[in-house]
Design a protein that fits this description.
By secondary structure, this protein is of the alpha/beta class. The chain is about 40% helix and about 15% strand. The chain has a single domain, classed as Rossmann fold, CATH 3.40.50. It contains nine helices and nine strands. Strands 3-2-1-4-8-9 form a six-stranded mixed β-sheet, with helices on both faces. The chain has a three-stranded mixed β-sheet with strand order 5-6-7. Strand 8, helix 8 and strand 9 form a beta-alpha-beta unit. The protein starts with a helix and ends in a 7-residue tail after the last helix.
């Protein structure tokens, strides 16, 4: 009888505790696997005629492919769904079928079972870089440049490459743009480009360059790129190789950044999700990209 009473007391005590603190919390969901969905966008305008620019671009793209490969190697095969692609911000009248075909071949989808073969996984970058070199070579041979249309790429094409996260995967959509930073076109083309007041589909850096009060003029006059009817709240942007035409003019780089940053933020890309970098030695550029993407700190 005493034992029975003791058991009742113990059960009642546990029931009281349960009543006071409630049921145990549900188990935490498993951590999501981070999948990188990276698009390298090439500005193949007359910037590539400048000394060492093609070499810089190719060294950076090679570094990006190696960086991508390094983070792939840390994952278990079933969880590899990352994507890497190269696209071209085409110039008006220069949509070359061969360039389109080469760019299409530069879509690497690691959700493809063939690429999950260890040998293919380790060797994907050699063909990738060779095809990129061919794109630059073909473009250089034409020697006819009208201006790379990054604005139209964001308006018409980019949305097809942005993906949503799932219950198992957290997708990081990243556009890496190799450009001198200018959005300008041949005179006959620029005259026909879309304009809405002081908002344009091209840049007018020259009207601010030598104005000490350019920030006020820019703001008060509502200057900038025409906002797009697009929301890219789940997109990150890395703009590399920006190269001011007048490096001694302290306003030049700031004006370029103002055009792009305002445009990015109007599309929902917050300040902590984009960077704009001047041209630098490729190894340093890759280091900054690696830090921005938190490659060494990501969830496995």
């Amino acid at each position: 009888m005493r034992v029975f009473i003791i058991l009742l007391v113990v059960v009642a005590a546990f029931a009281g505790i349960f009543f006071l603190i409630g049921p145990p919390p549900p188990p935490l969901p498993p951590p999501k696997h981070i999948q990188y969905n990276i698009c390298i966008l090439l500005d193949l305008s007359d910037r590539i005629t400048k000394n060492n620019q093609v070499k810089n671009d190719l060294d950076i793209i090679t570094g990006l492919a190696k960086l991508f490969k390094e983070q792939i190697k840390t994952k278990l095969t079933p969880y590899i769904k990352d994507k890497l692609r190269v696209r071209i911000a085409f110039q008006e009248g220069q949509v070359d079928p061969l360039l389109v075909s080469l760019a299409d071949s530069l879509t690497i989808n690691f959700d493809d079972e063939k690429l999950k073969n260890k040998k293919n996984l380790m060797n994907f970058d050699s063909n990738f870089i060779q095809n990129v070199k061919q794109i630059y070579s073909i473009t250089q041979q034409k020697y006819f440049f009208t201006g790379a249309d990054i604005w139209t790429f964001f308006r018409d094409n980019l949305r097809h490459y942005v993906e949503s996260s799932s219950t198992q995967d957290s997708v990081r959509n990243v556009v890496i743009i190799l450009t001198d930073g200018y959005l300008n076109f041949a005179k006959t083309i620029q005259q026909t480009r879309q304009r809405e007041g002081n908002r344009t589909s091209y840049m007018e850096v020259g009207i601010f360059r030598n104005d000490p009060n350019w920030k006020q003029k820019f703001q008060n006059g509502n200057f900038g790129l025409i906002s797009l009817d697009r929301s890219y709240e789940n997109l990150e942007v890395i703009m590399l190789e920006v190269n001011p035409l007048f490096p001694m003019n302290t306003n030049e780089f700031s004006i370029i950044c103002k055009y792009w940053s305002q445009w990015f933020e109007e599309m929902g890309i917050t300040k902590n999700r984009y960077i704009i970098l001047k041209t630098d030695i490729p190894s340093q550029t890759i280091k900054v990209v690696k830090d921005f993407l938190n490659i060494d700190k990501r969830k496995k």
